[in-house]
Amino acid sequence: MFSGPLHESILKRAQEKGLVEIRVHDLRDWTHDRHRVVDDVPYGGDAGMVLKPEPLFEAVDALRKAESEVLLLTPQGERFDHAMACRLAETSHLILLCGRYEGFDDRVRSVADREVSIGDFVLSGGELPALVVIDALVRLIPGALGDESSAMQDSFVGGVLDHPQYTRPPVYRGLRVPEVLLSGDHERIRRWRRKEALRRTLLRRPDLLKLAALNAEDQSLLSEIQAEHEGERDEQTERP
Ligand code: SAM
């Protein structure tokens, strides 16, 4: 499950450049029985199997360094977001514990520094959540992306969504690229992009704007956007 995503594209190049080292461990390496069993039936009787505590405790004992942060991936954890990604990207050594089956024996929580969920849904295992976390963190490491500025424009950086993007052709099936983007006027393009980023955020994720770092120009762009939308609403109500 890990080999594809870890050996393609940005994650592959970041490892080749020595920006990050990612190791995948098999929990079965910390079992002591002939069949290398990592799961067992739940106490109290119930459907499914539970990951035994011993392999997880021993794995963390073996892998933990003084500077490590241990993350337990669970749908019951704190929701992963850009702010958490930024905090975790500062950590020099992360251990991600992936569950399976019905999840971990609850005592495993005591070895974790943080419990992390990638969203309010349940996946079959922690491998995909771990890859989601890894990919989000590696993008934040300086030098991991081809163009450094592209990470700075991404959604959530600075608390707003990214502006709409277009590429050639200028007209496709009657759909036109906004004229300003073809103008070559860098200042107009910069202002348009910021305004559309703010518009997107206001319309789709107004909650983000409460925490966003907005300057005087942003406030004036937001006033323009609000006035435009109020104008549209008035026009609609006036139509018979
Ligand atoms: N019975 C558990 C529950 O309802 O909370 C779900 C277990 S899930 C089938 C198996 C494993 O997948 C979990 O232990 C966890 O590691 C991982 N997992 C599933 N959904 C996840 C999510 N949204 N975020 C993080 N990890 C998740």
Summarize the SSE layout with pairings:
Elements: H1 3-6, H2 9-16, E1 39-40, E2 50-51, H3 53-63, E3 68-79, H4 82-89, E4 93-97, E5 114-117, H5 127-139, H6 148-153, E6 171-172, E7 175-176, H7 186-204, H8 206-209, H9 216-238
Parallel strand pairs: 3-4, 3-5
Antiparallel strand pairs: 1-2, 6-7
Bound molecules: S-adenosylmethionine.
Which properties best describe this structure?
9 helices; 240 residues; Alpha/beta knot; elongated; 2 domains; binds S-adenosylmethionine; Trp Operon Repressor, Chain A; two-stranded antiparallel sheet
Walk me through this protein's architecture.
By secondary structure, the chain is α/β, with parallel strands linked by helices. It folds into 2 domains: 3-138, SPOUT methyltransferase, trefoil knot domain (Alpha/beta knot); 159-238, tRNA(m1g37)methyltransferase, domain 2 (Trp Operon Repressor, Chain A), CATH 1.10.1270.20. 40% of the residues lie in helices and 12% in strands. It has helices at residues 3-6, 9-16, 53-63, 82-89, 127-139, 148-153, 186-204, 206-209, 216-238; strands at residues 39-40, 50-51, 68-79, 93-97, 114-117, 171-172, 175-176. The strands form 3 sheets. The protein has a 3-stranded parallel β-sheet with strand order 4-3-5, covered by helices on one side. Strands 1-2 form a two-stranded antiparallel sheet. The chain has a two-stranded antiparallel ribbon with strand order 6-7. Helix 4 (82-89) packs across helix 5 (127-139) and helix 7 (186-204) packs across helix 9 (216-238). The protein is elongated and about 75 Å long. The mean pLDDT is 95. The chain binds S-adenosylmethionine. The site of S-adenosylmethionine (SAM) has 20 residues, from strand 3.
